[in-house]
Amino acid sequence: MAHTETRASHSQWTGRFSRFLLESTAAAIAAFRIWRLNAARRREIAGLTVEQLRDIGHPLADAPTPTFDVKAGLIANLMSMR
What we know:
Layout: H1 2-46, H2 50-56, H3 74-81
């Protein structure tokens, strides 16, 4: 009887480990596939022009571009403060 219990607990542990290994491997493969698809999308979007991005309705096409405004006389004001 003791031998049977030992074997049952061993096979139960092995079964749990196998299930864990299978599930973690499946999750890693799924994460890799998602990463690969996202990388391919980023590469394709990077190759498009602004007009093509507007055609597909991509939000980055309408994003404001950064600007740098300098008021007239700013340098003179800063120099006079010195």
